[in-house]
Specification:
The complex is a heterotrimer.
Chain A: H1 15-50, H2 52-59, H3 64-90, H4 93-123, H5 147-180, H6 190-215
Helix pairs in contact in A: 1-2, 1-5, 1-6, 3-4, 3-6, 4-5, 5-6
Chain B: H1 13-17, H2 22-50, H3 61-96, H4 105-129, H5 142-145, H6 149-177, H7 190-222, H8 235-269, H9 276-289, H10 305-332, H11 342-365, H12 367-373, H13 377-407, H14 413-439, H15 459-490, H16 504-507
Chain C: H1 17-48, H2 65-94, E1 101-108, E2 111-115, E3 121-122, E4 125-128, E5 133-139, E6 144-148, E7 153-157, E8 163-167, E9 174-179, E10 192-197, H3 199-210, H4 217-227, E11 253-255, E12 261-263, H5 266-274, H6 297-308
Parallel strand pairs in C: 1-5, 4-10
Antiparallel strand pairs in C: 1-2, 2-3, 5-8, 6-7, 6-9, 9-10, 11-12
Helix pairs in contact in C: 1-2, 4-6, 5-6
The chains are: A mainly alpha, B mainly alpha, C alpha+beta.
The complex binds heme-A (HEA) (2 copies), dinuclear copper ion and copper (II) ion.
């Protein structure tokens, strides 16, 4: 692989070494992300094991259609990101820009849907923690012990996931500007590949969140 | 001072604060951590001063509780966890494997800033919001009901945790990808192995304390009811979360020190470190087993008897790889040429103190015995023997050892030995007495033990002895600080390899390494302790007679 | 309080204490021997192989597989013994005999309340000798831990769930009960005593403490003052604890943090007990628990009468 001038840092010997190092670093970072979420999954599992009926009942309040739509949107975005990596390897930067913009669109749709889900809940007094005071049709009956725990966990997990999605959005905008300015070539496209890895992780976490919170 | 060295390569405060040179970052850590150690130490001395006599002597209950909380938090999160990886890992590890820098130098600098941001948060919370008196363990529901300064402190721990994660990540990648040609895995110095094992624990365990702190934060802010029984939560769940990180964290503290001891034992015995492979792999074994024993902090916290039994059994297993290390270090001296310079004194001191700390760890790991000893001063003594007597004595030994490489100067050997003796005597006086206090029934976190006096009249005498010991210990440590500062400005210039060591940082660079460590990438042809193959190492201007 | 125990351990006054102590001393001695072995060898080697000249070139020592294996096997055997032993004593500590006498325990900042099946209540624990006693414990606020060094028992006490501990005292005497889990400001003052009676004395004690019909309100208030743990924060002799002393309190003028003030009449006192957060006395923090609102009207009257008598 030939090397675009100026991108090899002085403390690396070869660009393969540099690329491998960056990739390994990213993988390790993703491991820490998984562990971060696993703490919340454990809290979820523990409370679900203690109060299965309450959790099953409370999850009915979440709209699986909206969640499902969001799953599709995220899957689509993962696909476009994968494609954009494919094309940046071939040096077809125009296509990369288009694909990244489509990705951004998907991400935006995801966040908009999330916004409506959240405000829909808030409108009926479903807040995380002490503010929990469900009222209104179909909601009032959820004023039962341990339902607040379900929604606290729901808001925390989807909230932290949402923060990751926002970070992802920022990264895609940054990538688009760099592609447009011609920073990447088939010889060097590490940031695109690493952002892609990150995005797949965000996607995978959602794939777990969706059935656990909305379906079962 | 040394032209072309990393110290002289560029000048001015900015060149330090914006440096990406791993050696300078190591020094940034050293300065910060020395300051935090001084702070934590002063808090400890205040704690001990309150306890010199029964009844209220200097501080009220409330102040006392804040003192030990801050002492614990500062020492654990700002001193001992970042300590060895931050200072010596940064300075030494890349040179030892023949690299020009770590894999991600800018991330490395960022880690330092993140770490400092954590420290600033902790201090700000203290100054702006007020007291935190939860103990370093932040047990719920006490912590979720306590003052809002807890929010600041938990954020501080969260933020500092990320510094630890990034440091670990950086080192793992560095060890995998940046080794010089010929630097095979079984030629890695044992210090590198130790930092590598530590880094794995950092990366795998720290995110869990991160999320625990987030949950605690939200518990306090929004009352999400995960941990607080008044809201339907479970306080023991918090303890599981906390110890799932904090037990592995004790190996984040001790493993790097063990690495230093391996290097010291080899160098100052001028002998191959006995059982190299065993020592290297036992680090990994300890790192792995360390994830499975957290429940031994909760034997009386109402976890099921079955889990207690399993946790107790796994706890004992850790004694075995650790024992392998201890025995091999002793065996390293066999038929060697043992040179009792200050760093070696600290290595021997480590063996002495850590063995006591480790064996008493086994004692508190025994189910029935821990029921009596839990939350008494016996536990306090145990963990000071391993943390101060183990990890920090290791760090101090390592700082002495690499001092000439870092500063290019020698410290005063006589002063070094006197200080070492003071530290040794002071330490044992402070903490050995606490074993007896604890097993006779003095609970920890006690501002006042006068009500215990009619059942244990000796408590007054033992506590006084412990406090006096802490003053001797402090005197020894201050003495180190003084001669270290003196050496910085007035010390004799050091040669490239004053100890006759065999690892790369001594043999392939000048007295003080230059900014890029090596002019050309070294080719490694022998192991890190092959003293018999390294004629070039000896015959230099050594300091002894 | 009788004998002083051994150098390492306090007096032993329960049936399990002997077993725990034997185990403790076994590990202590094994550890001491191991320690002397390791450090003795270390000192020996450091002296015997000390450096003679800077030109020393020691030859590498061939590793001895037998030794390497032995220091894996021997410690493994040792920890196996200790584990099995510790496990058996632990089971003994954990399982109360079926005929145990049960007492309910409430822990709160920073006092203990013991409730007996006869209806009697006390802030010190009273138990019969030579009879297994099982405590069912619950906390009203944060985690506490019930610890009797002389019995070698300890168990954390939580809000919202019961935890248990049992022991059989072997001597008539009094022993210290400490709180071993950090629970806030006055954690180190959360001590009380366990009084071990003969079987007959214990019955008498129960009988004496059950009846309260013939007490004046102030006398009942005094008992509530100790049972409800007011003493943890309010002294009777003017000494400042977490809260203001009751000495001379009634009738005095109270200044509050919000700048207002009031005279401490009976209504004020009642209000201060039922709803302590309403007004905070200057110089103090809002640390008084709100749980006393559940006291009966009669109990409140008694407490107020008691405070007025101080
Ligand atoms: C550097 C930090 C460090 C290290 C290395 C250790 C090491 C060990 N610790 Fe310790 N520990 C702490 C820091 C540390 N600990 C802290 C901070 C606490 C209290 C936290 C709090 O509550 O605030 C604590 C508390 C603590 C408890 C809980 C006590 C209680 O609260 O009731 C237990 C219980 O099992 C325990 C066990 C052990 C064991 C078995 C080891 C083992 O790793 C030790 C292994 C070493 C040896 C065994 C010695 C060498 C071996 C030989 C010479 C071979 C022969 C050995 C045998 C035959 C066994 N520790
Ligand atoms: C790294 C960890 C660490 C270290 C090093 C220490 C060091 C010391 N600790 Fe502490 N300690 C803890 C971690 C540590 N501690 C923890 C986690 C707790 C539990 C807190 C809790 O319950 O929540 C605790 C609790 C604790 C208690 C129990 C309080 C209680 O339960 O009521 C006591 C009491 O004696 C104590 C004493 C001391 C003393 C005298 C020292 C001395 O060794 C200190 C000596 C140091 C100095 C005097 C500073 C001198 C430094 C310089 C001059 C700078 C020079 C710089 C260089 C040499 C580089 N500590
Ligand atoms: Cu109650 Cu400590
Ligand atoms: Cu532990």
């Amino acid at each position: 692989m030939s090397q675009a001038a100026g991108t090899l840092k002085h403390y690396f010997v070869t660009s393969e070494q540099q690329f491998d190092a960056a990739k390994m670093g990213m993988w390790l970072f993703l491991v820490t992300e998984i562990l971060l979420f696993s703490g919340m999954f454990v809290a979820y599992a523990v409370y679900r094991a203690w109060h299965p009926e309450v959790f099953a009942h409370a999850s009915e309040l979440l709209d699986w259609r909206l969640g499902g739509l969001n799953t599709l949107v995220l899957l689509a975005s993962s696909f476009t990101v994968a494609l954009s990596i494919h094309f940046v390897q071939k040096g077809q930067n125009r296509k990369v820009v288009v694909l990244l913009l489509i990705t951004l669109l998907c991400v935006a749709i995801f966040m908009v849907i999330k916004y409506f889900e959240y405000t829909g809940k808030f409108a009926h007094g479903i807040f995380p923690g002490a503010g929990y005071a469900p009222h209104g049709e179909a909601y009032a009956e959820y004023d039962i012990p341990f339902a607040p725990q379900f929604f606290s966990i729901y808001f925390i997990m989807t909230g932290i996931h949402g923060v990751h999605v926002l970070v992802g959005m920022g990264l895609f905008v940054w990538l688009v500007t760099r592609v447009v300015r011609g920073h990447f070539s088939s010889a060097w496209y590490t940031p695109v590949e690493l952002t892609g890895l990150y995005w797949h992780l965000v996607d995978i976490i959602w794939i777990f969140l969706f059935p656990l919170l909305y379906l079962i | 001072m040394h032209e072309g060295s990393y110290l002289g390569a560029s000048r001015g405060l900015k060149s330090w604060l914006l440096t990406t040179d791993h050696k300078r970052i190591g020094i940034l850590y050293a300065v910060a951590i020395a300051a935090f150690f001084l702070l934590g130490g002063i808090l400890a001395i205040l704690v001990r001063t309150e306890l010199t006599a029964p009844g209220e002597t200097v501080f009220g209950q409330d102040q006392y509780n804040q003192l030990f909380t801050l002492h614990g938090v500062v020492m654990v999160f700002l001193v001992i966890i970042p300590g060895i990886p931050g200072i010596l890992g940064n300075f030494v590890l890349p040179i030892q494997i023949g690299a020009k820098d770590v894999a991600f130098p800018r991330l490395n600098l960022a880690s330092w800033y993140i770490f400092m941001a954590g420290a600033v948060l902790a201090v700000l919370g203290w100054l702006l919001v007020g007291k935190v008196d939860t103990g370093w363990t932040f047990y719920t529901p006490y912590s979720s009901g306590a003052s809002n300064a807890v929010l600041w402190l938990t954020s501080a721990v969260f933020v500092a945790g990320f510094a630890s994660i990034f440091t670990g990540l950086n080192f793992i990648v560095t060890v995998h990808k940046m080794r010089a040609p010929g630097m095979t895995w079984n030629r890695l110095p044992l210090f590198v192995w130790a930092i590598y094992a530590t880094a794995i624990v950092q990366v795998l365990a720290t995110p869990v304390i991160g999320i625990t702190m987030v949950l605690l934060f939200l518990e306090k802010l929004l009352q999400i009811g995960i941990f607080d029984p008044a809201l339907g939560g479970d306080p023991v769940l918090f303890q599981h979360f906390f110890w799932f990180y904090s037990h592995p964290a004790v190996y984040i503290m001790i493993l790097p020190a063990m690495g230093i001891i391996s290097d010291l034992m080899g160098t100052f015995s001028r002998q191959q470190v006995s059982g190299y492979t065993f020592i290297a792999l036992s680090s990994v074994a300890i790192a792995f087993l360390g994830f499975l024993v957290w429940g031994h902090h909760m034997f009386v916290a109402g976890q099921s008897a079955l889990s207690s039994i399993i946790f107790s059994m796994l706890t004992f297993l850790i004694g075995i790889p650790t024992g392998i290390k201890v025995f091999n270090w002793v065996a390293t001296m066999y038929k060697g040429s043992v040179w009792l310079q200050t760093p070696m004194l600290y290595a021997l001191m480590f063996l002495f103190l850590f063995t006591i700390g480790g064996l008493t760890g086994i004692m508190v790991g025994v189910l029935a015995v821990d029921v009596h000893l839990h939350d008494t001063y016996f536990v306090v003594a145990h963990f000071h023997y391993v943390m101060m007597g183990g990890a920090l004595i290791g760090l101090i030994g390592g700082l002495h050892y690499w001092w000439p490489k870092i500063t290019g100067r020698l410290y005063n050997e006589t002063a070094g030995r006197i200080a070492a003796v003071l530290v040794f005597i002071g330490f044992n006086l402070t903490f050995f007495t606490q074993f007896i206090l604890g097993s006779r029934g003095m609970p920890r976190r006690y501002h006042d033990y006068s009500a215990l006096m009619d059942v244990m009249p000796e408590a007054a005498m033992l506590n006084l002895a412990s406090s006096l010991g802490s003053y001797i210990l402090a005197a020894g440590l201050v003495m180190i600080l003084v001669y270290a500062l003196h050496s910085l400005f007035r010390g004799k210039l050091a040669s490239a390899n004053p100890w006759g060591a065999c690892t790369l940082e001594w043999t392939h660079t000048g007295p003080v390494p230059d900014a890029h460590n090596f002019h050309e990438t070294p080719l490694v042809t022998r192991g890190p302790y092959d003293f018999h193959l390294a004629d070039d190492v000896f015959g230099s201007d050594e300091e002894d007679s | 309080m009788g004998d002083q125990g051994t150098v390492w351990l306090p007096e032993a006054a329960s049936t399990v204490a002997g077993d725990v102590d034997a185990l403790f001393y076994f590990i202590l001695w094994v550890s001491t021997i191991l320690f002397i072995g390791v450090i003795g060898t270390m000192v020996l080697f450091a002296w015997r192989f000390r450096r003679r000249s800077s030109q020393d070139r020691p030859q590498p020592v061939r590793e001895n597989k037998l030794i390497e294996a032995s220091w894996i096997v021997v410690p493994t055997l040792l920890v196996a013994i200790v584990f099995v032993w510790g496990f058996r004593v632990f089971l003994e500590l954990g399982i109360a005999p079926p005929n145990s006498y049960e007492i309910d325990v409430r822990a709160r900042k920073w006092s203990w309340l013991f409730e007996y099946s006869s209806g009697a209540q006390s802030s010190e624990l009273h138990v019969p000798v030579h009879r297994p006693v099982k405590l069912r414990m619950i906390s009203e606020d944060v985690i506490h831990s019930f610890f009797v060094p002389a019995f070698r028992v300890k168990a954390d006490v939580f809000a919202g769930r019961y935890s248990y501990v049992w022991f059989e005292a072997t001597r008539q005497d009094t022993f210290v009960v400490a709180c071993a889990e950090y629970c806030g400001m006055a954690h180190s003052q959360m001590l009380t005593r366990v009084v071990v009676h003969s079987q007959d004395d214990f019955e008498n004690w129960l009988a004496n403490n059950a009846a309260d019909a013939d007490m004046t309100p102030a006398e009942r208030g005094e008992r509530l003052y100790s049972q409800q743990g007011c003493f943890a924060c309010h002294s009777l002799d003017g000494i400042e604890l977490t809260g203001p002393s009751f000495q001379g309190l009634a009738g005095s003028t109270r200044m509050f943090t919000d700048g207002t003030s009031a005279e401490a009449d009976a209504n004020y006192l009642r209000q201060a007990i039922v709803n302590p957060a309403a007004e905070i006395v200057q110089g103090y923090e809002a640390l008084m628990p709100g749980t006393y609102s559940s006291l009966s009207a009669a109990d409140l009257d008694a407490l107020v009468a008691f405070i007025e008598a101080q």
